Amino acid sequence: MMHRQRLALAAALMTAVVLLAACTEEKETPAKPKGAKKVAAAPGALLPFSGLAGTIDIAGGTAHIPVMKDAAEKIMAACPGIRITVAGGGSGVGVKKVSEGLVDIGNTGRALKPQEKEGADLRSFAFAIDGVAVCVHPNNRVSDLTPEQVQAIFAGTTANWKDAGGADAAITLYTRDEASGTREVFWEVLLKKGAIADKANVMPSNGAMKTAVAQDPNAIGYVSIGHVDNTIKALAIGGVAASQENAASGKYTVTRKLYMNTKGEPKPLVKAFIGYVYSDEGAGIVRQAGYLPIPKP
Amino acid sequence: MRAFVVERWARRALGTATGVSVVAVLAIVAFLVVGAVPLFASGEILSVLFGRWRPYAGQYGIAPMIVGSLCLAASALAIAFPAAVGICAFAHGLAPRRLGRLVLAVVHFMTSIPTVVYGFVSVFLLVPLVRNAFGAGSGMSLLTAALTLSVLVLPTVTLLIHVRLQQVDPGVRLACSALGLTPAQSFLSVLLPASRRGLAAAAALGFCRAMGDTLIALMVAGNAPQFPASPLDSVRTLTSHIPLVLASSWGGPEYRTVVAAGLLLLLLAASLSLVIRRLVGPSRQEASRAQDAS
Fold this sequence. Notes:
Number of domains of chain A: 2
CATH architecture of the largest domain in chain A: 3-Layer(aba) Sandwich
Number of strands of chain A: 13
CATH topology of the largest domain in chain A: D-Maltodextrin-Binding Protein, domain 2
Radius of gyration of chain B: 23 Å
Low-confidence stretches of chain A: 1-42
Structural class of chain A: alpha/beta
Radius of gyration of chain A: 21 Å
Number of strands of chain B: 2
Number of helices of chain A: 10
Order of helices and strands of chain A: HEEHEHEHEEHEHEHEEEHEHHE
Oligomer: heterodimer
Structural class of chain B: mainly alpha
């Protein structure tokens, strides 16, 4: 039974991504014929990885996955001796796994709670700002809601789109599971810790939320801004568009920071990885994923 | 001498294997029971079992999930059971022999399809279909999950009934033909009643399987922690409650509901398997008759 549940967790979140690289010595000289195709030396931002080999296991927040995956691919392509695995699970899983030493980096979409810091000596590295966007189906003619309207919709008191400036159709609510960092930001900042109707559907990941909202013409849900694309429509809140620019300037307030957490001082390889995420190249990856990079503290 | 050594090692290996299995099961039970002690000690168990799930208001009850699980398993079985009986009727006399075998082969194949495949296909095919057909809600509902789950349960139920039908004395079939019963008549009034216990066991096992499945409910039932008022309502099951909440916080009130849900599922599975044992094993009557015959 345990096995089935663990499988469910992994598969339903659809986030477990395992990336493998051939384990060969990195410092192969280009003179060797079979090494001819490989990138000989790690250029620029990848320099700190030269001479390093080993494994980095990463798990936690689903919002982090695009950044982690992209960084991992770039590093592994240049340094064949390094193997990086990226898995999801949500912020709660990230903290739990890193405190138990099951992974090297546990990602969270929120600052660590006091009781989480108690158990283990955890170090947090904030590397990006992410906004949470309220989203609807692209064909929905509503494009702007006030915070009060969003609160009423999620509490179930506004149940029809015509009461919010839309067509005459019942609103279907989508929320996230209890472990979601996205839900925490949305609930604390936008809903002001208000009620969410019992009838709201609960989606286990940002991806599942996007799929559900993209398919349902009467849906309202919320995703990390990094996940917004043309399959769903992000709503402006009180006239402020849910864009990364507004999130950076502080105009759009439904935001959070994304953290990487390690147990104690990170080992050299993990330290190099964190350094890479903070590098200019890393910042580019963060921007490409739809987040705003935070410079190294 | 050599045989003796082999014998001794085989005994040890088998003994260890048995021991490990038993210890594993006991460890699972012990883990859940120990985890549930604080629930009982504080009297919190009542509010967990009968309360509603409103974490934002400090209410951590799993009553909607218990009802959701029971409703979902019962509806899935209500769809799968008649279908399974129909398939068995088809394979045992109503259809040409070859076609019957083919159908059973397909059912056999169905047992090997992973549940995630059903869930995945359902998200993209059945969910929009249900939403558009009934024009209400998200399409993720008790009905959608029950339909998907019935496909999962179908082979289990069918094969169990099939095996039971096979065990019916061949003489009975001959007698039916001799009496001039049509295949449908002999199936309905002789074969089915003769395998009554098999039918009940198949239903119990099907229910168990439907209750225990996590992924389909998680993917297509909608997971809303509410008491379903209609088949189109979104529901959360005990099983999907566990992965949805497990990741949140270790040792908090949410976590204790996970333990309660796990314990409930275990108790339910254990009691159903006792029922199945009684049904499938030889009854006392049959056993004594067998003794008389020998």
